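re: ur question from the group chat, yeah i did fold both. here u go
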Amino acid sequence: MHLKYLVLSDIGPFRHRHVFDFSTEDRRNSGFAFFAKNGRGKTTIYNAMKWALFGKVRRKSKLVNNLVVEGSNRPVVDENEKEIDNILMNYDAWQDDRPQQMSVLFIAEGEFGTLQVQRTASCNSMARKDTDFDIELSVSLNGTTFTGTAAEEEIAKVFPVELERFFFIDGEEVESYTTMMKSSSEGIIDDIKSILRLPSLTRGIGDLKSIAEGYDNAIQADDQKQQRDARASDKARNLFGQLSVVRKHISELEEKVESLNKRKSNLKEEMEGHEELRLYAEEKIDIEGQLKVLERSIRTSLETLLIEFSSAGNLLLWDVLGPQYDSITEQNNTNQSRRFELESKLREQKNLQSTIDAFTSICEECGQDVPDAEAHLSKKNKELVHLNKTIAELKSNGGVDPKVLRKKMAAMEEHFQTITGSKERLLRAYKHYVDQVKRFNDLNERLSDLSSLISEDSTTEIQDLANKIARTDQALMKKEQELKQARFSEDESDRKYRSAKPGDSDDSTIKEIFHLRDTIRKFIVAIQDTVKSYSDKATEEVQQEASKVFKQLSNAPDAFEGIRLNKQFKARIYGTDGRPVVGASSGMEVIMTLSIIDALRTVSRLDAPVFFDTPARSLDKDHKNGMLNYFWREDRSQFLIFAHTGEFTVEEILEDDLASFNKAWELLWPEDVQGVSCIHCDSTSILHAGKGKSSCDDCDEITDSSQRQTYPKAVVLNE
């Protein structure tokens, strides 16, 4: 359903007639906004649609002892009302007009065609209370006009009243919604069942049971007739009596099973309320076990550390031996270098001496005299002299005896290895001990924190609940088995009764009744199974859709798995670790609630505008923008927000350049533009007329700034 026009006449601060045009050629551009200070009428527009559709507007609900108490209906007028804002009709129209009249008209289009709805409250005299008014409803659907009850029925087909909560969202009541979602109160459960169409299915079961009971009565009446006609035997009467007893027993067992199921659900719900404490208790038990293991390990580590400390004297000894070992090592390296050099020079000496000894002036290959033979021989002799001198110096600087050095090094290396091992083991033992003590202290600190969070009474309560759930499960299994056996007995008794009942073989009517009754009972079982299957499937669909929306609206989507709903539709936020989020912020819980509401709307398959009053009351800027970007995306239905200027300013909306923003209005009182512009034509050519009044040169209207009448002003949107 897409809203095209809304016409308000003398409702709230809207004096006389005001038209709002929501028509657009591009339905993808579906976002509309109303900006106003308190009292200017944004909530009035929101309530006007509700009054036109349902004929009533509730006061805001309240939280009393963590329970949501629905507000009473607001009257059209009431002379006993102290606050004029609590009545629906424009106050000046109520006081001054004769006859009095308030009306709301809207035109919408959808799969059903064109819909026009007008609800009017009128009185020829001075009305003092609602009953003085004549309330008329006119509905036109594709040219056919309906009034009275027929008109209400046509509206219910297009927009059922049970779905009101999910399309008319009051930001100030989101906390109430959230409380209901977190506690799975009966109010929200009923609403959710309605939006999932479960009541219509369950009502069908009740109707079929009534029909089956009627057939049983017909069978009994026929039996009585048979008895009166003396065609029934004592055996048949006795068997029918037994059958009646069995059926009564079945009914009692069904009630008991239902009661036990409800008790089990309530206990599980109560246990889920302790989920946070249960998680803390599990962590506490785990830490206590770790501490016991650590205590034993720390004692062992300390013993090892003391043993290693006993060899610490070796470390002191190394302070003395270390430099000596380094000196001996250096001497040994020097000795080895000299020895290698001496061996090399001796080989060179031998080769050079051999060359000199074998030298002649005649070439052995050609037999000719060698040129400069004497000079060549003299050069070789000089090289030999120099080499002999070098060898002599190397032999004279032999240093410490290598054998002595090696002996000293071997002795010190034995000590060195022992000392090195002791040092490494001591450091390793000390680090291990320190790490374990730190881990022990950290765990003790966390244990202390958990002990302050978990009282002994809480632990006892959780255990008691667990025991009650276990006992209830046992009782439920027993009663379900009894019920199964009783139904088997019913079939057997019914078979015996039919075979014993005389005269039935020729009675086609009673046979047909038996057949119909049995068929209906099969239908009942099938519908019950279908309702359960559909409920489970619908809940899963809502859960998946809500999780998707939550991650889109969240400012940290990667931190969350999404939202889970139990069978009682209690909602919890879950992180990516698969555990419920403990201590979620109010903003996060609001996003959770909005996600579930939107998911339920999606699952309901109802295409209708969303009216959101004070939408960002509990949200930060990131969540505000995320919400608007989500609801105003191209594939959405119409989305109308009624925002206090403290939530979203006109400038803020326009600066953010939200793509699907279609139209917007500011709702103003004369005092809001006093001395600046004309509230009627927006001209700045105004003259002050004294006593808060001004006149406009362009439209000749005179404006009194003391008037508390609202004038809508269209906001010029950026291209």
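okk and heres the other one u asked abt
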Amino acid sequence: MKKEKIVIIDSHALIHRAYHALPVLTAPDGQAVQAVYGFASVLIRVIKELKPEYIVAAFDMAGPTFRHKEFGDYKAQRPVTDDALINQFPLVRELVSAFNIPVLECQGYEADDVIGTVVEKLKNKKDLEKIIVTGDLDSLQLIDDGNIKVYTLKKGVSDTVIYDQAAVKERFDGLGPKQMADFKGLKGDPSDNIPGVPGIGEKTAITLLKEYGNLENLYKNLKDIKTKSPKLFEKLSVNKEQAFLSKKLAVIKRDVPVDLDMAAASFDLSDDEEIKKLFFRFGFKSLVNRLNELKGAAVKSVPEQTQLIGDELEDYYKKGIFSEKIYQLEKDVRPVLRKMERSGILLDVKSLKDLSRKIAGELSQIKKEVTQTAGEDFNLNSTQELGRIIFEKLNLGGPRIKKTKTGAYATGAEELEKLKDTHPIFTLLLRWRELSKLQSTYVEALPRLVNLKDGRLHTTFKQLGAVTGRLSSENPNLQNIPTKGEYGSAIRRAFTAPEGWLILAADYSQIELRVAAALSGDEKMIETFNRGEDIHTRTAAEIFNVAADKVTKEMRREAKTLNFGVLYGMGARAFAQSSGFTLEQAREFIHEYETDFSGLAKFIKDIKNKARAQGYVETLWGRKRYIDLNSPNPGFRAAAEREAVNMPIQGTATGDIVKAAMVELDKKIGSKKDIKMILQVHDELVFEVESDAAKKYAPIIKEIMENVVQLAVPIAVEIEAGPNWGDLKKIKD
């Protein structure tokens, strides 16, 4: 007889895991929602894979728990929770409510204790399989003879594993679930600040427990250890009280005063309208498709999605966020995006597998060099261990050592970058992080998302994913595919065209600066673009007071930084850090820039004043963003000012103009058999075109993109083509 299943969700563990594993995602209203997205994504996967009859969600409650009373420093090392994370907890609760999943929580206890109580209440139901869904391994101690399992995340929010008794023993070299609390009693748990026995690591803890079974029996036979290892005996003897306290902290309670209503926990997806409304409010368009697939309604997903986006557009129009022109534009671009999603782009999986092996080899070599320098093997991904090695054991950093609010060593990329000239280990560590991210985010992740039927990646475009109107994409995100370096180029080359076809890319040249020139009316900027001159060279000539032909590459680079930095609110301190100039020099350069381009400086000032007075800014065609520039908090106010300047420029450029170009291009070539538009990446449109037809379509694409709007400066488009996205060359006449 088939067992029924109940899924018990460790909500806080999943929320925290998703928040830190995913890049920042924002809803159409600007609210950060990456934790909500990760939670929803895991929930849908769990429903699909496990097909549970019952689901409940356990939550932590604010305030201290009994563990804090037992040990005042419990979790004391954790940094203050980001506001961006705190604000997502109620959104996850909304999501859980939309799924009609009951919430279980109890003041003074953690979600783990609530979960322990649920499985205890159900322990006699042998025909009911209990599966705990979590983002960590704390619940492993609850696993029993096959009736209780733990479904958790190995990496990010997409790589999952199910632990039963056998899997726990494999992971911990023979230790079983019932020994997990004893294991933490010895080794401790840095994530919860459970101390354990100092000097005892994972290997020693496992060896001791395999021989003695548990902490109590170990201490009964402590004399045996004295004979074998006096040093180990001393550690255990001195820290006996701490060891038993650590075990006590690690033990999950099973008697929390919570009620379990199995009728309320009965899971049913027959009515998912509230879920879909919530998904579209958050901008989770792809999850609507996945939700439909759960119900066997994948065929209806696109039209349903289109309708719901249409409802959202209607709402924005009625609220005055969209002008008539923007409302019509967004309606017109919807079918274009759906067509591009269905087309997808071909991915050379083999080349990425080859690249993965190459990166793995370099990572292995880096780790070898780092551990040799450190004089011991350690986890390079552990910030705690890394801080200990470089700042205590190697005594590096000197007066520039920075610590977090909790007193831990700051080991972020920004801090390591500041120290890279002081010792070779910092360069190695930065390279390790760079390669690890490339490997996990792109090289290993992208092949898993390929459609097995056509070998193509089918991203989902988030039409209203940014308040500026700029398109974004997800599952996978193809907006941030790397371009720089050997490996970045190799990843791009994996996006390829079918045999007999080419990838054609049409890229707006300096579109945001051209829009800034037109909106501001800055005479020098307009003159530069109308003459067909390079704006960065002209800027360098002005601020360095040299002739254009005397501008060096370095001068142009600094000018480019200023052109974009000043435009979006970069201050003197940030410019000094990026350029290597002193703070005083940076101030002088910015002052010189604002003097030379006074029209742009006045425009930026006027935008801020307008936003402060009317509470919103808007694009050229009337896409509004409501924004508060009157916050008493200087940091919030500065951020709002940057957003106020960004919206009219970026919104007009990569929101309004690019979308308008896509609509017009679809009208002209959308029905052709020898070309199709497949991607939009910021200010770039990507096509697949038959090799013989590339020269025919290049001038058509260029003409449409350059004339979709008339500004005070010409719009320029550069077109390249090649066998893949990484090897593109200008098309010769």
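fwiw on the second one: Residues 297-308 have pLDDT under 50 and may be disordered. The two ends are 72 Å apart (CA to CA). idk if thats what u expected
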